[in-house]
Amino acid sequence: MSEIVQMQEHLLALKSEALEVLEKVATPKELADLRVKYSGKKGALTEVLRGMGKLSAEERPVVGQVANEVREAIEEVINRKQEEFVRAETNERLAAEKIDVTLPGRGLPQGGIHPINKVIEQMEDIFLGMGYSVAEGPQAESDYYNFEALNLPKNHPARDMQDSFYLTDELLMRTHTSPVQIRAMEAAKGKAPLKVICPGAVYRRDDDDATHSFQFFQIEGLVIDKGIRMSDLKGTLLQFAREMFGESTEIRLRPSFFPFTEPSVEVDVTFVKKNGERIWIEVLGCGMVHPKVLEMGGFDPEVYSGFAFGIGVERIAILKYGIDDIRHFYSNDMRFLKQFSRI
């Protein structure tokens, strides 16, 4: 038998053997091993083709054609089996990871606006409805804006009422939002009317307890125009109290002292306790803007007058929501905060 005939028969026999074995393969690993056995660099097909060197130039193309047919037949079965394994693995994974689309969805936890922010937003809405605009200023403030421009010169005894966090000799964490009023007056350049509220955080050296904190929030209000009177201040605060606490709310003004207003008063509102008792509770301080403050802000006190008020946001929130300890606002206790997510 000639060499070429032997090689052709050997290739056909190899094809029959490989196809029979490949059809019975059961795992991807077995398939990979058989690929190496028959088609690898040292595989059976490669060993047969190495003998082509003994053939003549005319015989090699004949054997090469048969070898290519055998290789293609083997690779076709290998590829088909591999696709079957991939498909089976995918189906198995899909079955294991099956999702029941009829199940109800899991609710995502939702946060809420902090009660302090809720009260600030409500207060802003009330005063914006009265024609006020919102002004802001730095929390690290100069001594001039925090004290001197508000009729509190150096060594003034009233400075002791606001024990301060000084950063340098002339820079401190603001003790009230009144400095923003001075900045708003300067920005107005003596032109009226001026109606602003100034919300923000303030800082004082104080021991934390149920009613005090070293950081808290205020909203200052300022109105300047010709002919502004104390009755305008009272009417404004009565309107605010009724929109914040209810139409039956009443207010009363008690004489007080603040260096930046003259005359000065403290304001109480009526509050109904759980047992139905109606009492008075202090909520803010206010008064007519002191002529020196008007002058420092660039307004002629002979022409213009004005009123100012300062409201403690925490005090309003405590009354509005019946909270008994200011520290709840800053404790980050989810049990407390979740109560306000639906309000």
Automatic annotation (TrEMBL):
One BP term from GO: phenylalanyl-tRNA aminoacylation
Domain of life: Bacteria
Record field: catalytic activity: tRNA(Phe) + L-phenylalanine + ATP = L-phenylalanyl-tRNA(Phe) + AMP + diphosphate + H(+)
Record's keyword terms, sorted: Aminoacyl-tRNA synthetase, ATP-binding, Cytoplasm, Ligase, Magnesium, Metal-binding, Nucleotide-binding, Protein biosynthesis
Membrane spanning residue stretches: none
Cofactor(s) essential for the protein: Mg(2+)
Any single Gene Ontology cellular-component annotation: cytoplasm
Domain Aminoacyl-transfer RNA synthetases class-II family profile: 117-339
Keyword Metal-binding among UniProt keywords: yes
GO terms for MF: ATP binding; catalytic activity, acting on a protein; magnesium ion binding; phenylalanine-tRNA ligase activity; transferase activity; tRNA binding
Enzyme Commission number(s) of this protein: 6.1.1.20
Location(s) in or outside the cell: Cytoplasm
Co-factor binding comment: Binds 2 magnesium ions per tetramer.
Protein family (similarity comment): Belongs to the class-II aminoacyl-tRNA synthetase family. Phe-tRNA synthetase alpha subunit type 1 subfamily.
Database matches in PANTHER family: PHENYLALANINE--TRNA LIGASE, MITOCHONDRIAL (PTHR11538:SF41), PHENYLALANYL-TRNA SYNTHETASE (PTHR11538)
Assembly notes: Tetramer of two alpha and two beta subunits.
Name the UniProt record assigns to this protein: Phenylalanine--tRNA ligase alpha subunit
